[in-house]
Design brief:
Blueprint: H1 10-13, H2 35-38, H3 50-63, H4 80-95, E1 99-102, E2 108-112, E3 119-125, H5 138-153, E4 162-167, H6 180-186, H7 191-196, H8 205-211, H9 223-228, E5 229-237, H10 242-246, E6 250-256, E7 259-267, E8 271-272, H11 285-302, E9 305-314, E10 320-321, E11 324-332, H12 336-356, E12 360-369, E13 372-373, H13 376-385, E14 391-394, H14 399-403, E15 409-414, H15 430-449
Helix pairs in contact: 3-5, 3-15, 5-15, 11-12
The chain binds glyoxylic acid and manganese (II) ion (MN) (2 copies).
Length: 450
């Protein structure tokens, strides 16, 4: 199928590399052969050996948690599955003699060295979208722990503390707002607003945290935790085909598209599916359907992407006209003005269609994330340490994107051969994961010792 639409999408069309990915000599044992110092990493040089086994071992223990088989992963914040993931994290920390703490916002930190200013922080998140893949989030956390192991085995004595972090509720799958842990930490999500967020069953975030044994009373900007971060490097599976197109196992992030979520509510009138004349209906499904089509058209015209991926229909009966439809719009584009224009157009189309059917339409912005440019010293330094790997923009959101406005932040991407993500089919080859771990190790060593 040919996909229509103007403009280039960063995760589909691929970036222009900063520097071509170069080949180096093949190593049987990348650790002993001083891989980090000898030049660029390539897939061939990290294809075998103990690290691959170790990665697979650590990975398999984690990958059973929240696995729903063919339906993918369901790892929602503050559920028993999330608590099992948190227990896994604590055990990994304990096995390495790293002190583990949960901060005021539910983020978990494992420390090598005394927590304090200038810390080199790495990690990602362990929660998932519904029907998610295994790699989005967990790859960054597993890689972080294995990078700590490699540094220690190589006798590295960091001059600054190193921390592994698991950010709370990155996907926002349960309460609707993404990157809750990092937004609260940075102070871009108000604690009262966070506590009041509700899941599909009406449970508030505050109630869910309390039920999970956490204190929602302490949520909010965490100056102390922020002040400790000297640099944050998040490793993540790439969620497009950029690296595959460049034949490179590892890259760095250059930018994140601005994006947001809008709750669109269509207020109609419930009635009988058999006896209500078409002319008498106030069916919210009709303007909703118009909004979905308008969304696709606006996104194509503006070179953006936009998605209605979640819908609640009330009362959701086959033989009842719905009384209300709640649908969530996810919109992203290369610049904020385009996203805003697109959402304005979609809102206008939905309201016009609603007026034609006696349906009131309400559109509420639930979250907004401005464009992120991973520029400056940290990105250049990480790319230089890795011997010049490609730099890629992405349409996916990340905790590193939130934190980048407050602390130096960078991202490493690991090749995703098909680009599929937020799907059970999401995959990265183990050898590429190992290349990512080695790249992360090299970056951490440089930052913690240089
Ligand atoms: C998170 O993965 C997002 O991009 O929404
Ligand atoms: Mn994700
Ligand atoms: Mn993620």
């Amino acid at each position: 199928m040919t996909r229509p639409g103007p403009g280039k999408h960063p995760d589909r069309d691929g970036p222009v590399p900063l520097d071509p990915f170069q080949d180096g000599p093949v190593s049987d044992d990348p650790l002993k052969d001083g891989l980090f110092r000898e030049g660029p990493l390539t897939n061939d040089r990290v294809g075998g050996g103990a690290l691959l086994d170790r990665f697979e071992q650590t990975w398999s223990a984690l990958s059973r948690v929240g696995d729903e088989g063919a339906r993918g992963y369901r790892r929602f914040a503050w559920t028993p599955v999330d608590l099992a993931l948190r227990t896994w994290f604590r055990e990994q920390a304990e096995a390495r003699g790293m002190d583990c703490e949960q901060d005021r916002n539910g983020n978990l930190w494992a420390w090598w060295g005394t927590p304090g200013p200038g810390a080199v922080v790495t990690g990602s998140h362990l929660d998932s979208v519904p029907g998610g893949g295994a790699f989005d989030g967990p790859l960054g956390v597993v890689s972080a722990f294995l990078a700590v192991d490699l540094l220690r085995e190589r006798g590295v004595v960091p001059e600054r503390p190193i921390a592994v972090v698991n950010f709370a509720d990155e996907e926002g799958a349960r309460f609707g707002v993404a990157c809750v842990g990092s937004r609260l930490l940075a102070g871009v999500l108000a604690p009262d607003a966070a506590r009041a967020l509700r899941d599909a069953d009406g449970v508030t975030l505050a109630e869910a945290m309390r039920a999970a044994g956490a204190d929602p009373g302490a949520l909010g900007r965490d100056e102390e935790a922020l002040a400790r971060i000297g640099a944050f490097v998040e490793l993540h599976i790439e969620q497009g085909r950029g690296l595959a197109g460049l034949d490179a196992p590892v890259g760095v992030a250059s930018a994140i598209w601005p994006h947001g979520r809008w709750r669109c509510t269509f207020h109609g009138e419930g009635n009988h599916a058999g006896t209500t004349l078409l002319a008498d209906r106030r069916d919210p499904m009709l303007p909703f359907a118009s909004a979905v089509l308008a969304t696709r058209q606006a996104a194509e015209r503006l070179g953006a992407v936009a998605t209605f991926g979640k819908v609640l229909v009330d009362p959701n009966g086959t033989n009842a006209i719905a009384s209300r439809v709640d649908a969530w719009l996810d919109g992203r584009a290369p610049d904020s003005a385009t996203v805003r224009k697109m959402v304005e157009e979609i809102t206008g189309a939905a309201e016009a269609a609603g007026a034609g059917h006696g349906v009131r339409v309400e559109v509420v912005e639930e979250s907004w994330t401005p464009v992120v440019e991973f520029g400056g010293e940290l990105r250049d330094r990480v790319a230089a340490t890795l011997g010049g790997v490609p730099a890629l923009p992405t349409g996916a959101g990340h905790d590193a994107g939130i934190l980048s406005a407050y602390v130096p932040s960078a991202m490493l991407f690991v090749r995703n051969p098909t680009g599929t993500s937020h799907s059970p089919a999401e995959h990265a080859e183990p050898a590429d994961c190992v290349a990512g771990i080695l790249a992360l190790t090299a970056a951490l060593e440089d930052l913690a010792c240089g």
